Amino acid sequence: MPLDWTLINHDALKLIDFDGLLCGVERFDCNTFRDEVSRVEREEGRWSAEQRECLRFVGAVLTMMLRADQPAEPFGPMFVMDGQRSAIPADFPKEELLSLQAWALSLQDPELRARFLDVLWIQARSFPAAQGAVDAYIASALRLEHPKDWSSCHKRLERALRLAAGLGKGGADLRLRVLSEIEAMLHRHRGTDPLYLTLRLTRLLLEFKHGDACQFAGFALAAAASAEAANDFWRAKDYYQLTADCHRAGGDAAAEGPALRQSAECLVKESELAYKQLGRGAITAASVLSDAVEAMRQAPGGRDRAAELHERLLVLQQESLTELKPLSSSVDAEALVKIAVTAVRDKSLAEAILALCKMVKPPSISKLKQDVHEQARVAVLGSLFSSEVLNSRGRVVARPPRLEAGANDPKDDGLRWRMFRNAHLTRSLNVQAMLNPARLEVLSAHGPDRLDLASLIQYSPWIPPGHAESILRALLAGFQGDMLVAGHLIPSQLEAMVRHVVESRGGATSMLEPGGLQPERPLSALLETPEAAQAFGADGVFELQGLLVDPLGTNLRNEVAHGLRDDSGMFDYEVLYAWWLLLKFCVLTSKLVERQQTAMVTTALPAKDGGQEGAPTGERDANSLDGVTKDRGEK
Questions:
Q1: Residue-wise pLDDT tens digits, 520-543
Q2: By C-alpha distance, which of 86, 112, 89 is closest to 13?
Q3: pTM (predicted TM-score)
Q4: Cα–Cα distances in Å, from 352 out to 141, 367, 427?
Q5: What are the E-state strand segments in 280-320?
Q6: What DSSP character marks residue 510?
Q7: Do 291 and 274 form a contact (C-beta atoms < 8 A)?
Q8: With b meaning 16 or more CB within 10 Å and e meaning fewer, what string describes 56-95?
Q9: How far apart are CA 96 and CA 230, in angstroms?
Q10: How far, in Å, CA of 183 to CA of 186, rounded?
């Protein structure tokens, strides 16, 4: 329900005394404040109509998610559900916010003050609000400083820094103050914190070229050694990488190489650990060791060690074939959620996203046909009548006929529509019970940013030239639940990807008409080409047709392109599924190319007998998904 701004004013807000109301909470952050405000708002007889509306306003502002690494849009919705979302800054009118600036500046609690002043800055560009927000963020970060629960503190310092940096020359003193506070915090911990506080603080200082990078390298090295001693090899890898980055920033090139080799050795140790663990085994060990080989090859002085590790990798890859087993079972939605979350939990970001990409498969055409005919046998009337397919505006766009007895051709409209309908139900279950819970787990555990995703898709041959930035923004928006952005980007990027894949395989993507005109072939025609079938497989093509372009299916590409979907329609689970497809296509093809490049380089190294190692056999086509996900069975 929209806020009633006639009831929200400075005096009503002052009468509530939020500083006193929230002083007794256990944790001083916006999430906890939001829960407390929501609780007291429900108390009957305590509040006037004005005060209750003020409580709703404050709760809405506190519900936004802070995205400190995105200075242009630092707040996003905390949740999206059933076509609805929580508040974002654009929901609050500029003039109404400006009338509340004095109240926001008077707030004593720094967390509250930072949130409201930052929203004022975003919506109304009030310079005093921006200055006050920076000071408040610093105070809130210092109060939340904790070596284990580090992310809240770091986010507020990063937001303060990026906000101050965005003020130009007028924010120079504020920027220096934030950097000094970050450096002071780093010196307090000196790499002794057990997680990632030192790493994230150091990265900010390196980005803004502040402080003694060589000294920071010592802190990072101490953190790396501590993580390695605790068998936390992923964290150790990151800290050794940070050590190398510090040496490079400090001009000490001689120390950079050893740190990079140590970082790669941590992957070797993680591979050895995975090999011994139940549920990971040779498959995971080979995947991690493949990354170790590539990292060691790129590290100065790591060529010989890379060749040695490659020999071990070949053994693991052969052994992993014995671990591939089909899985077929019937489970309820709650069990699926547990399976999905477990599949990505307690893994590195790369491992978790790879598991997310392999989590489900498109339903096979044969299975869809079998299910349609079984349903027709059980529910006879449903197959005897034609139906109507409506678009998102309620217009009739197709009338699939009755299902003819013995229909077997997926191009038969009666059969095709019923197959699309079953696929639609399967996607709904997959998104709600598996893909979205897994996405939220990855987001909560890692908060992937643009650079993280760029490293995972950088080798993909399926990304069209000049489209990498659009695809990165679409993927990042999807992870963060910003489906308004993702929903508008993804269909066009999937179409561009299909066009690029077909063209790269020699297929024609345009037509030659009289007069020399060469109009582009539409996506529906591209998906009918042999090249698309080779790349995506018959089941994958059928899935893309039903999801993107067929009026008998979801027709997402055309609905978005023609502006038929409103804002709430962008939060439909089909949009999130399309996001997952784009992520899967980019990550898996990138991973294939990365492994093939590693294999080609390492096989070119001198063998022990002085000859050349043989070229690897059985390699998969890097421009095809056929077989990419065969290490997971049917769900």
A1: 889 999 999 999 999 999 999 999
A2: 112
A3: 0.60
A4: 29, 29, 21
A5: none
A6: B
A7: no
A8: bbbbbbbbbbbbbebeeebbbbbebeeeebbbbbebbeee
A9: 53
A10: 5
